[in-house]
Amino acid sequence: MELLVEGLTVARGGVPVLENLGFRLSSGQVLVLRGPNGSGKTTLLRTLAGLQPPLAGEISLPPEAIAYGAHADGLKGQLSVAENLAFWASVYGTRDIERALVDMNLVALRDRPAANLSAGQKRRLGLARLLVTGRPIWLLDEPTVSLDAASVALFADAVRAHVAAGGAALIATHIDLGLDAAIFDVTPFKADPDATAGDGAFDEAFL
Ligand SMILES: Nc1ncnc2c1ncn2[C@@H]1O[C@H](COP(=O)(O)OP(=O)(O)OP(=O)(O)O)[C@@H](O)[C@H]1O
């Protein structure tokens, strides 16, 4: 199982942000996505997850192989922690939510409505969702926002276990997660502003 990306050009609002980008993410590997604010990391992850079409290029795996953890946690506030996980387990066709509850330290919170969780607890629940997807490729956008040091360590352990079991992860993060990871810096792939000159909409990070 391998995610191979070749000649990929991604855009926001119709404006190319990154172009002719490529990388390989193999089973057992963690790749950390780097680049300044506004450089296109979220846009790249959304494109790989199938949430928006690329302008060009090839992505070797379908969105069904991918679990995307976005900025927004996507919780259902009226449902309890366990009910949220059970909902996602049914969506993804998996069963076991208990391991996810344990791994993200949510057992004591299992019956609490998601709306009543703290920001960091919500984040832990959002990450627990990844564990019930059963999908091999995790794409994560700033997964540790709002997490305390202990929760960052829990998250890093979950990623280690995922890749040890043959999964892989592409993680946009500005912090050191203490993982054995390669770095993929998107900066060299910034789109050519001249190609879109005249509309004044090009990414501020590259002006
Ligand atoms: N909905 C949108 N419509 C148009 N342009 C957008 C939209 N969202 C983001 N952009 C622009 O697209 C460019 C890439 O943004 P993106 O969020 O992919 O960057 P990023 O590398 O993830 O940034 P950060 O590190 O700040 O999270 C930026 O110039 C941003 O202003």
Please give a handful of descriptors for the protein shown:
207 residues; alpha/beta; Rossmann fold; 5-stranded parallel sheet; 3-stranded antiparallel sheet; 5 helices; 28% helix; 24% strand; binds adenosine-5'-triphosphate; membrane; ABC_transporter-like_CS
Topology:
Blueprint: E1 2-12, E2 15-26, E3 30-34, H1 41-48, E4 56-59, E5 66-69, H2 81-92, H3 98-103, H4 119-133, E6 137-141, H5 149-164, E7 168-172, E8 182-185
Parallel strand pairs: 3-7, 3-8, 5-6, 6-7
Antiparallel strand pairs: 1-2, 1-4
Helix pairs in contact: 2-4, 4-5
Domain ABC transporter: 3-205
GO molecular function, one term: ATP binding
Pfam family, one: ABC_tran
Question: What does it look like?
Answer:
With 207 residues, the chain is of the alpha/beta class. It has a single domain, classed as 3-Layer(aba) Sandwich (Rossmann fold), CATH 3.40.50.300. 28% of the residues lie in helices and 24% in strands. It has helices at residues 41-48, 81-92, 98-103, 119-133, 149-164, and strands spanning 2-12, 15-26, 30-34, 56-59, 66-69, 137-141, 168-172, 182-185. It has a five-stranded parallel beta sheet with strand order 5-6-7-3-8, sandwiched between helices. Strands 2-1-4 form a three-stranded antiparallel beta sheet, covered by helices on one side. β1 and β2 form a beta hairpin. α2 (81-92) packs parallel to α4 and α4 packs parallel to α5 (149-164). Mean pLDDT is 90; it is low at 197-204. Adenosine-5'-triphosphate binds next to α1.
